[in-house]
Amino acid sequence: MAGQTPETFGLPPEDWSQWVAWLQIGLHGRSRWRLPLVLAGLLLARGRRTVSSWLRAAQLQADYVDYYYFNGSLGRKANEVATRLFCLLLQHLPLPERIVRAVELLQWAVNLLKPWGKPIWAVMDGAYAYRPLLKPILAMGVTVVSRLRRDAGLRTLPPPAPRGRRGPRRKYGFHRISLAKRAAHPQGWQTLEAVLYGGRLVTKTYKTFLATWPVVGGTIRVVLVRESREHWDAFFCTDPAATTRQILECYADRSAIEQVFHDIKEVWGAGEQQVRNLWRNIGCFHLNLWMHTLVELWAWHRSAEEIRNRSDSPWDNPSRRPSHGDRRKALRDKWFQNVFSVAPTKHKIPEEIQNLLTYLAHLAT
Fold it and tell me: How many angstroms separate the CA atoms of 338 and 332, rounded?
């Protein structure tokens, strides 16, 4: 088994091979050749996604111990491989107006994104909007968008400094702001259209104003959204120049992050690998993250019709947007097509056998 290559289980799509070769460079030269084999196992594994199921799918079970230790070394090199994968995304995907990141990745992302000149916005739940966490984030030049507590200690803007006065200018105004009173006031409400959850264009009723908040150490933009006569939500952005549409659409992007973690658990089985040792667990979890990213990258420029195949599920909506599971299945189909397309070129195979092989490949996916 030690001499196996990815061609043992068939040739992956050409761009996939190039991407994996790029990621391999981040690993030690003696073990980097194992990475494409493990990724193949992740793609082809069925049932519970343990490391054993990965190796069985890639026909590597005889070398279980070697690959078990490889996961540990991969965990120690996770930052190097993840950095190369992030650079790969920057090269192949169109960059949005702003980059939305999770808090723990901010410093890493800020350093990598500096040459691209793109602003980074951190979107977080309101429970994390407290000073010890926000202070280092804002020091990086990152814009924060989050929910705002209804009892947040907001204050008005500071008055203009008198002419000729020396010393620092006041940061906060003299008066407190009650969000509940602002929301209850019937005047000042406006409407706008924004693309929110699920990519739907919806109309929102809102109020927006500037305030100062000691938690962020300065001025913020506050947005109140009225969902019904009795219910309203509050959001804030540390960039006072941000528009209401930018704030609401950015906060709605959190749903995409939550969906990613759902897919990593449900589609790739993150957490099911049954390994010991911290580094092996780190390596296995990153493998799931990387495979999710690579599948999304592979499917990015492909049409929905090319990815979506629900012929086996006539009860399903055939026009429904392809899920991540659909993308993974489409890549597996492509993988097996490459396997069986190579065989007729090397051997003269009767047509009925080729049809049988196609049918078996369909069953396997």
Answer: 10
